From TrEMBL:
<keyword id="KW-0378">Hydrolase</keyword>
<dbReference type="InterPro" id="IPR036514">
    <property type="entry name" value="SGNH_hydro_sf"/>
</dbReference>
<protein>
    <submittedName>
        <fullName>GDSL-like Lipase/Acylhydrolase</fullName>
    </submittedName>
</protein>
<dbReference type="Pfam" id="PF00657">
    <property type="entry name" value="Lipase_GDSL"/>
</dbReference>
<dbReference type="InterPro" id="IPR001087">
    <property type="entry name" value="GDSL"/>
</dbReference>
<dbReference type="InterPro" id="IPR051058">
    <property type="entry name" value="GDSL_Est/Lipase"/>
</dbReference>
<dbReference type="GO" id="GO:0016788">
    <property type="term" value="F:hydrolase activity, acting on ester bonds"/>
</dbReference>
Length: 391
């Protein structure tokens, strides 16, 4: 059997499964036997340029070789002349797509254009998100009757200058998004009450409340095929320096079990970035920064314990600490992502929380943070990509 996968650029790959049981081979249009390859060198690269993640016009393609199988993986679309000379150059493209290939038994030739990727076929029917302002796509703005965030530089009620990562990821997966996240949310208002608004006096539903609301309304027909993501804990730490990461993780674990019992089978728990890196931390003492750093690190550990203990469901943890730390001036992550050398330090918008004087940078895509607390749209796109790699 030969299945043809074609792109709008007339590039195509041929997937063959015919030489023995379980032996799948990728064969090129010029060599139907699949022998005397590497086949990727004979194929156009079906990908798309990931602006702001790799250097402009840098192709990223990989070969996957296994006994009895050779597969070509392309994760950016670039001109054929550029692609052929750099096949196999990036191991990262291999990691991004290999798990999808092996689990689905298909070759997915797809790509990524900031801030979102073209559709990736994963079998999920919808994306369900619970969280705080890091994941809020405008629900909190509606809660405050369009009063917060108040600065006109914020994008359509998001706490950023563009779409947030759930929107990026949902478009990448080509699935509907059910985003219950709200700015100011904690994991559980019984532990610490979340607030929002210009005066921080408007009550916010916690992740616990969000899950209860979701289960009561049942907007998703097939929860078993949905991808459910929980991303919380930032406001637990910011609102109460005495709260432990274990307690926050315990709440998240309880919510996962409740959703699992309702039929959900696929979960991702997102750990917060190193909270001591937020521009806000320039206004607090060093010992408080240490508390925030320790909380983030311990929360990641506790979430991994939660994932290990939950049975009858797939639970993965995506830790954002390494991603954000890679943007520091001493690492190379900032350059690969297209940020300014000092893009991790400070924010594009200053004054979003009524600080004076207000200022706005000329190029937000050179900054990791949009304001004193929240990622820029470019960073949101990178968060979405980081999550996608774990699918």
């Amino acid at each position: 059997m030969v299945m043809r996968i074609s792109s709008a650029e007339s590039a195509h790959l041929l997937w063959s499964s015919g030489e023995g049981v379980g032996r799948n081979r990728l064969v090129s249009p010029t060599s139907r036997s699949g022998r005397n390859t590497p086949p990727c060198l004979q194929l156009p690269c079906i990908c798309h340029l990931q602006q702001g993640y790799d250097a402009p016009h840098q192709p990223r393609c990989s070969l996957l070789r296994r006994p009895g199988a050779t597969r070509c993986i392309c994760v950016q679309r670039v001109p054929d002349s550029m692609c052929s000379s750099q096949m196999g150059a990036s191991r990262r493209g291999l990691r991004v797509m290999a798990s999808v290939l092996l689990s689905l038994g298909l070759l997915l030739a797809t790509g990524w254009s900031a801030p979102v990727s073209p559709a990736v076929r994963t079998g999920f029917s919808s994306l369900v998100v619970f969280g705080d302002s890091f994941s809020d796509n405008g629900k909190g703005y509606a809660t405050t009757k369009h009063a917060w965030p108040s600065d006109p530089a914020y994008y359509k009620g998001r706490f950023s200058n563009g779409p947030v990562w759930p929107e990026d990821l949902a478009e990448t997966l080509s699935v509907p998004l059910y985003d219950y996240a709200q700015g100011g949310a904690t994991t559980d208002n019984g532990i610490i009450q979340g607030y929002t608004g210009p005066k921080s006096d408007i009550l916010v539903p916690s992740l616990t409340d969000q899950v209860a609301d979701f289960l009561a309304k049942k907007p998703v027909k097939d929860l078993a095929s949905s991808l459910v993501i929980l991303f919380g804990g930032v406001n637990d730490a910011l609102g109460n320096s005495n709260i432990t990461a274990a307690r926050s993780a315990g709440v998240i674990g309880r919510l996962v079990r409740k959703l699992r019992d309702a039929g959900a089978l696929h979960f991702i728990l997102v750990n917060v970035p190193d909270l001591s890196l937020m521009p806000y931390d320039a206004y607090i003492e060093a010992d408080q920064q240490d508390v925030l750093r320790d909380y983030a690190e311990h929360l990641g550990y506790q979430l991994r314990r939660v994932a290990q203990r939950i049975t009858s469901a797939s639970v993965q943890v995506v830790d954002l600490i390494p991603l954000f730390r890679s943007f520091n001036v001493y690492d190379k992550g900032w350059k690969a992502a297209g940020f300014d050398k000092f893009g991790l330090y400070g924010s594009c918008l200053v004054g979003g929380y009524s600080e004076a004087p207000r200022s706005l940078c000329s190029d937000a895509d050179r900054h990791v943070f949009w304001d004193e607390y929240h990622p820029s749209r470019k960073t949101h796109a990178l968060i979405a990509e980081e999550i996608r790699k774990n699918l």
